Amino acid sequence: MLPYGRQSVDESDIEAVAAVLRGDWLTTGPALAQFERDIAGIAGTPGAVAVTSGTAALHTAYAAAQVREGDEVVTTPLTFFATATCAIWQGATIVFADVSEDTGNLDPAAAAAAVTDRTAVVAGTDYAGHPIDAPALTKVAHDAGALLLEDAAHSVGGSLDGTPVGSLADVTTFSFFPTKNLTTAEGGAVVSHDEALLGRASEFKAIGYTRDQSRWRAEGDQGGWYYEMQELGLNYRLPDVLAALGSNQLKRLDAFKKRRQAVTDRYNAGLAGIDVLRTPAHRAGADPMWHLYPLRILDGRRRQLFDHLRESGIGVQVNYIPVHWQPYFAERGYRKGMCPVAEAYSEQEISLPMFPDLKDEDVDRVIELVREFVGA
């Protein structure tokens, strides 16, 4: 079975991990510090906070943004549900807004109609690796007195109008799951230009305690062992052994990006001009990091195409079932029909294989099978 996504690990990655295993640190050591510097460099930010997953990154970002009970978070339903559920863990109410028909990203007009005086965060996802309309969404968020969060799980290494993903929003989260654009096996990160927010993120992911004497509530010399827990936190610390893998993967990020673009271009060329198919949109000024190849079939036969490709040994996926259709949300009053553009996109979408080691002949085989199915 040709997978729809997989990691690319070479001997240099293995050696980077082995070097940590031979050393004195397995967690929260020099490899982690280096990885955070490396991620900040890619994002163009003064710092980064590495954590154990993309989900942990979202939770940490919402906590660092001081989202709390009574707040609302406006977000997209065309995403992995952690974009919404991590805000719920902070006590927020989720307000879903529809997406743009071309990119599948949060629609600024829909977000503007959804914000209220309780909105704390507007959270957009870089669907498939295409950056959100950050300038428009920033205005929506800031006009409401809220922050813009960019869920960039799909798009580390991308940019918009020359600005790197990581510097487009008030706070940005990354994911380093094996199928993502670089991997730490499991892992994620939070980046921002707000150093106070990064400080809160760093404490939250380290169980909420601080050894910074300038911030202690206690007075006087408490001894070299002393620390304080002033806010709730969780253990989301990324081990050095995984951070070392991430730093080494970053050395190949440009090559990964070029290959993903080449695969996208080959799919686009092979599937162009077919009335019942819609290839991914690419807006002017955007330099996507294509995590997915989201093909849409417009004649209602997505299920049949999915089964045809799976039966032919092609691993395909659907990204995503709208979040508000999940039972958890349905039981709380969210209904089908709330976000018709996202729902239509979801019912048409099928993710074709996409990863850096994908061979041209495999791409051509997928194209041939899709064209055969639609009679093109």
UniProtKB/TrEMBL annotation:
<keyword id="KW-0032">Aminotransferase</keyword>
<comment type="similarity">
    <text>Belongs to the DegT/DnrJ/EryC1 family.</text>
</comment>
<dbReference type="InterPro" id="IPR015421">
    <property type="entry name" value="PyrdxlP-dep_Trfase_major"/>
</dbReference>
<keyword id="KW-0808">Transferase</keyword>
<dbReference type="Pfam" id="PF01041">
    <property type="entry name" value="DegT_DnrJ_EryC1"/>
</dbReference>
<dbReference type="InterPro" id="IPR000653">
    <property type="entry name" value="DegT/StrS_aminotransferase"/>
</dbReference>
<dbReference type="InterPro" id="IPR015424">
    <property type="entry name" value="PyrdxlP-dep_Trfase"/>
</dbReference>
<keyword id="KW-0663">Pyridoxal phosphate</keyword>
<dbReference type="InterPro" id="IPR015422">
    <property type="entry name" value="PyrdxlP-dep_Trfase_small"/>
</dbReference>
<dbReference type="GO" id="GO:0008483">
    <property type="term" value="F:transaminase activity"/>
</dbReference>
<protein>
    <submittedName>
        <fullName>Aminotransferase class V-fold PLP-dependent enzyme</fullName>
    </submittedName>
</protein>
